[in-house]
Amino acid sequence: MASEEINGAPDMLVRAIIRAIYDGDLVMGQRLVEAQVMARHSVSRSTVREAFRRLAAEGVVDIVLHKGATIRRPGQEEMIDLLRVTEALVGLNARLAAERMTDPDIRLAFAEETAAMLDAAPDSEGVDYARLRTRFHRALLRASGSVELARSLPKLQLHLIRAYTAIPRAAHVSSYRAIREAVLSGNGEAAEEAGRRHVVLLIDAVRAGA
Fold first, then answer.
1. Which residues fall within 8 angstroms of residue 136, CB to CB, at 6 or more apart?
2. Which CATH architecture has domain 76-208?
3. I need a labelling partner for 132 at 20 to 30 A (CA). Which of 5, 46, 169, 172 fits?
4. Do 71 and 27 contact (CB within 8 A), yes or no?
5. What is the fold, at CATH topology level, of the domain defined by 9-71?
6. pLDDT tens, position by position, for the chain (210 residues)?
7. How far is CA 158 from CA 33, 72, 123, 140, 147, in A?
8. Where are the alpha helices (DSSP H) in 23-103?
């Protein structure tokens, strides 16, 4: 987790922990020790406990009495259920983004952000590649302009990070390129299909025992 000072508010600590999971600095099954979180973020024990409580309510962590919290690892059936919902939302997100490509500023921003991610992907590993994936999905959310999807999708995707490790890098990158091309074409139907296919890759990997 990146070292940074967070003054007080539990919601700020919640965001920092969630970002660390997205960035690959925290992994599924990893234990979060209260004292270490307090020291790293310069917050009180009550702030840490409240942040853990909120994360537990969202299904991000499991709280173990007297042992702090652990980054939650969903089981296979739960993962598939989450992925089915995510498939629909990622498809919708891509469709909405495609429909906004008539705005030259939105189109340029999306094209540049995703091109940079795809250019860097082949040479990135581990945490760096996790951050690139996050950048792509954030760029897609910004392009879609949907406030509700911006609230809903990240929470779902947070649980699905481990599924990515079961898919070959080439398949990842090819899938992202397909989404990008469909969105930039302005074809909402094609973009939705590309977004759904991306998540189906994860569903197939989980079903195969990822």
1. 113, 114, 117, 118, 176
2. Up-down Bundle (1.20)
3. 5
4. yes
5. Arc Repressor Mutant, subunit A (1.10.10)
6. 433 444 457 888 988 898 888 777 888 889 999 999 999 988 998 999 999 999 998 888 999 877 789 998 888 888 899 899 999 999 999 999 999 999 999 999 999 999 998 998 877 776 677 788 888 999 999 999 999 999 888 878 776 776 776 677 788 889 999 999 999 999 999 999 999 999 999 899 888 875
7. 20, 10, 24, 16, 18
8. 34-41, 45-57, 76-99
What is the maximum span of the chain, computed from C-alpha positions, in angstroms?
55
Provide the sign of the torsion angle of the four alpha carbons 43, 44, 45, 48, taken in this order.
negative
Q: Where are the domains of the chain?
A: 9-71, 76-208
Identity (one letter) of the amino acid at 71?
Answer: I
